[in-house]
UniProtKB/TrEMBL annotation:
InterPro entries: MurNAc-LAA_cat, N-acetylmuramoyl_amidase_3, Peptidoglycan-bd-like, PGBD-like_sf, PGBDSf. The keyword Methyltransferase does not apply. This is N-acetylmuramoyl-L-alanine amidase. Residues 239-354 form the MurNAc-LAA domain. Keywords: Hydrolase. The keyword Hydrolase applies.
Amino acid sequence: MQLLSRGDAGPPVAEVRAALEEMGILEPTGPGPALFDDQLEQAVRIFQQRRGLITDGIVGPATYRALRDARWALGDRMLLLNTQQPLTGDDVFSLQERLLELGYDSGRADGVFGRQTEQALRSFQRDYGMSPDGMCGPRTLRHLGYLGRKVTGGRPGLLREQERLHRAGPRLSGKRIVIDPGHGGADRGVSVGTGADQVTEAGLVGDIARRLEGRMAAAGMEALLSHGPDDCPTDAERAGFANSAGADVVLSLHVDANASPAANGLAAFHFGTGTGATSTVGEALAGFIHRELLARTRMLDCGVHPRPWELLRLTRMPAVRVEIGYLTNDRDRAALLDPGFRDVVAEGILVAVKRLYLLGQDDKPTGTFTWAEVLQRESNRPAAAR
Ligand SMILES: [Zn+2]
């Protein structure tokens, strides 16, 4: 699709305006040609911020999809499985959340009506005396509504992640990790400088990924890169790769940039909608990575945040995206250009993964676990303490 931004006009702009007006984010205007004006740009930014999208005020594919999804409220249409083109939208998300609350395992609430959502819906229908047709229409909705929100159960999908973590044991050996360099091939990510002085995000995160891969292999882990240096798959393709590899954890590496050269620091992201559903294991891992890297470097703390981004949402295992500093900041860039710093980052991430599997047992203060100690523990200790 074409990107829409300030100055554009025409039917696609009218559609965006209508969606934002419906949500009450944009003041309705009278008849006349639909323009992408300052007010619309502001409304798009507000919407993007609420949805955890990049707040650039431009309507690209991700924002457009989110706008379309946001227009569906539970009850607007019949929900059922379409394997060719799965239904997506906020109504699907609400249904999944409701099923999870009632204790039916519809998987991660991701707004996509897939096979697991259908199965959970059928179980619900069976238990409440309806014909288990897997279709969510008025009758099923009435039942879901009657039950109200008083009944609360666990969140099986996310609880399952925790269960798997507890069963996994403390050793790194045998764990399968997908390392995802955020950019590659023609997509260099953010970059500064030109010619021989050019520094690119793709180059830096590719290098950190290889350092991490080497250390993980040395610790007996199975580390897989989501793509080669010449490729740049979409986020959905990266998630698909991790899912089919049956990875235990996904680590996505990025470096940020900002119009202001003063912006700097480290941020980590895990799956979460900001309105309830959160991957607790993903959050824990994001926290470990964040704290280890802050303790080992002098980067500014830009926090750990839940985001519904595609890579985090579509992966069936805990996934963390980390933004390691700003290329547009002199100090962050100088640090990133130092190979020693990139080693420190790789080791900090590895130690954070180790911490996740230690489950707080036998732990050491943040920033003090050394690479040599991790290796020694992996080689000497029996696979006990489960
Ligand atoms: Zn990036």
